[in-house]
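Batch 3, record 17
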Amino acid sequence: MNLTLKVWRQKNRNAPGHLAEYEARDIPVDASFLEMLDIVNERLIEKGEDPIAFDHDCREGICGMCSLTINGKPHGGKGGVTSCQLHMREFEDGQTIVIEPFRARAFPVAKDLAVDRSAFDRIIQGGGYISVRTGSAPEANAAPIAKDVADRAFAAAACIGCGACVAACKNASAMLFVAAKVTHLNSVPQGRPERDRRALGMVRAMDEAGFGNCTNQYECVAACPKQIPAEAIARLNRDFARASLKETLAG
Amino acid sequence: MTSIPRQSDTPDARIPSGPLASKWSRHKMDSRLINPANRRRYHVIVVGSGLAGAAAAASLSEQGYKVSCFCYQDSPRRAHSIAAQGGINAAKNYQNDGDSVHRLFYDTIKGGDFRAREANVYRLAEVSANIIDQCVAQGVPFAREYGGLLANRSFGGAQVSRTFYAAGQTGQQLLLGAYQALEKEIAAGGVKMFPRTEMLDLVVVDGHAKGIITRNMVTGELAAHAGDAVLLATGGYGNVFFLSTNAMGCNVTATWRAHKRGALFANPCYTQIHPTCIPVAGSYQSKLTLMSESLRNDGRVWVPKRKEDCGKPASEIPEEDRDYYLERKYPSFGNLAPRDISSRAAKEVCDEGRGVGPGGLGVYLDFADAIKRLGEPAIRERYGNLFQIYHEITGEDAYRQPMRIFPAVHYTMGGLWVDYNLMSNVPGLHVLGEANFSDHGANRLGASALMQGLADGYFVVPATLPNYLATQKPGAVTTGHAAFADVLREVDDRVSRLLAVNGKRTVTSFHRELGLLMWDRCGMARSREGLQDAIAKIRALRDEFWRDVKVPGTGAEFNQQLEMAGRVADFLEFGELMCLDALEREESCGGHFRVEHQTGEGEALRHDDDYSYVAAWEFTGDVTRPRLCKEWLAYEEVHFATRSYK
Amino acid sequence: MKSLILAVLRFYASSIGKKIVVALSALGLLGFLVGHLAGNLLIFKGPDAINAYAAQLHDLGGLLWVARIGLLVLVGVHIAATLQLAAANRAARPQEYVVSATLRATRSSRLMVLSGLTILVFVIYHLLHFTVGNLHGFYDADGAYRLEDGRQNVYKMMVDGFRVWFNSGFYLLALGLLASHLSHGVSSLFQTLGLTTPRTRPLFRLAGWGFAVVICGGFASIPVAVLAGLLK
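Prediction for the assembled complex:
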């Protein structure tokens, strides 16, 4: 198939960017979207031009490294998949495809389509963990966890930290990302002792990083490759409110 | 048959004396300690942030050491451990089905075709139970039963259910557990993290590993980092095959550079070809996708009995015309036969012309019986995400028609040689996880990679590293030492040379060519002629690479082609060593199958008398002339046996 | 006391803190809407009913002022917090997408600031119109809108007011936007206060729509009835 690509090119974080147009000819329909970009890049290199920089690693939808906004939709907007799992059979011959980076103040562009998502790591540093030292753990089966609780925690823990939620959100909010981790850790008994501290710490880290806030439009949910549900955000709100109330009144 | 201990010419493996079952506790008792107040004066460099690296960095920081951790991804959470699907083994015996530390140990030794070091494997089995405790405490959401206790499943190469799992995303959940522990330590100030930073060389000062040279992948800046010890947890080298289930960025550079600075590279020819991957669809393909081996619990592997049926849809081939060849050949393990055996069996039926799908390179993995028996919802709950991945890639619905699978390179058992302390022959240089050679012998059992990575990171290195550190004055070597400037200059020269070639061929075209060559000649079946031919061709390709590669851009910027070029240049050297190792090992064992050495039935034929050693290669200054050192494996507890899964 | 104030400020400084403030103030305003509608609908019981109701309200005296100031504070807080959040949201994406797409956000959800601000303009107009009364001469000295006992003839004020097409037009337009605002706002409120679960989400969505239809339909029935000549 033949395609016209309009790709965001930006030399580095501080340089201005622009859309550049490329013809992508004879692309196999069974190729993945990133393989299509590989082909385009091989040709650019052969022509002596600068290939398009984009992040990718596992190419099986689990590492969360790939991060393209395709025709305005993070990961192509198909839902439930990452860019690397998107295949060219989803597109039409002759189509024009606009490829932009995930855009947010908290995700500055490193080059072209690659962005810096270290803000997510800083949010996890705010409390997205359970403080247990290696070696100090009790016997694994000492505390049973009901299957439905474990399953719910797992569903939230499936987040791959790709940032599509931020990219899709009209406000560049990271609420779904934070909510997924809070839901995961706050719903299992091991996470209870740090429940309040976690909700407060992660939300503050999120605010500090310069993300927007949630206006309950759930673009994030629609874009999430792991289909983290909106209820996670409700849970985050609840846990934050509870923690704030305790902090404000009890000190 | 008993083993015949012979004189090894590798350095002492420092295996503790005494009975196997008490070696580890005795060793910990005998190990040196560092006063908690002194620990913060030691700086430990950890390269890699996968299960082994993140676990080690977090655990060492918790103990009080100052840690710097490096990864090439934009976040430590993305290391390729994340892609492991099936599970993690542990000798908990929660199922009351006869498991024990000893059985896990024995299964691992046997699965590794008697080419692993007994003491290391026993320790691995011993700490396996602690790993599960640790991960559960971190909040890792393992699958549970209705009673709230942990669930298990069985996995290839074992007859007990000892595998803990989190749907088909066990690696992800375990890595996130380790990543969160790491971030906790970063927040606490114990670990400094360097994402998007690639290690390009090791700095050895007076024979000791004292630092690394890195490149900042965003700015291109080269930098020197000094430490009191260097830990490499940089994964495997499966990408030497170009197509593998490894992430695109996985590479041999860190371990290869360490090798060229003196570290022995052990058993490079031991590569695992995983039987259940999605077949190759076309020449544009950039990587292969694994379908977890756990699928073989409920899926049945078959091909048509007759070549003529291969073109027909599966549904039109009646039961009596199907050959469930694993169940036929290995009745007691059936579809759960170990990976090397299942892969080779798939290759055989495809070689006979009975493969299915494009190019005849595929076999069916059929869930029809399981769906009939358990119902579609049960199958969906167990494997839903895998079926979805399969659907995304192939456009086919595996609930309605059988999956097509084919073997693909998945894991590499070889790696840098380490002693019982996980320290290489270069003092101070420790190697963890897939990057070392130690625990899986010639073949790794399913669900054991996660176990090993976490065992090394959480429990082994934190206990053994002080043995080395206690001999060192903390902070004695700084980047001011001349050795750092020298290595930095060499790295800078190499980057400049890559950019200066300015030829016509892209880096990927070289990588692809090397990969095809390796797959053909050093893949599932290897022969003397094939390997000799491969070595000659790799040398020629390497020459061509340095004559004709085209690396656009400059070194002082975000330059993904330059990153790839450095890695492919190393693969082009490393591939030769792999072939040489395969050539030298005149036997078949585990993932290494030499066509000259097989039984009448086509099964692997080991030669224990001559080859029960670890082949540790020493760099001599010339990549074409490495020196072979042998660590003879002494078996005190187990007896060599022909591996049979019939 | 100082530490309590600092703690409250800290809560308000966070994004979710502001959102909770928006949700809680909205809850108060929703209560006001219900009360206001209930009073207004008395118009269908005839002039005496609504005029008596108006008189009762007036007789509250100081309490009425407490309610008025309370309402004003709610409106002020609701708007101030929202505008701060909106500004933060705009700042969170300095470089807009060249091509932007919407995956599932409703039109109402995307118009919240616009609908809210339009409603604000309407409320000011509405207050000038009926409460201050200087847009329509309701408080003129000639006593056209006074009953014999000197109380206000609210019934006549409403009927006369809505007979003017642009009053009714603006009123209906504002109600349309209010319906839009409520349809997203009510279900959002439950989400922001953390009450939504997978089971209750559809219920709250429905509640949002139901509330919007009942409230706005109720208010709209009065100008419609006036224009249709049912109320004279």
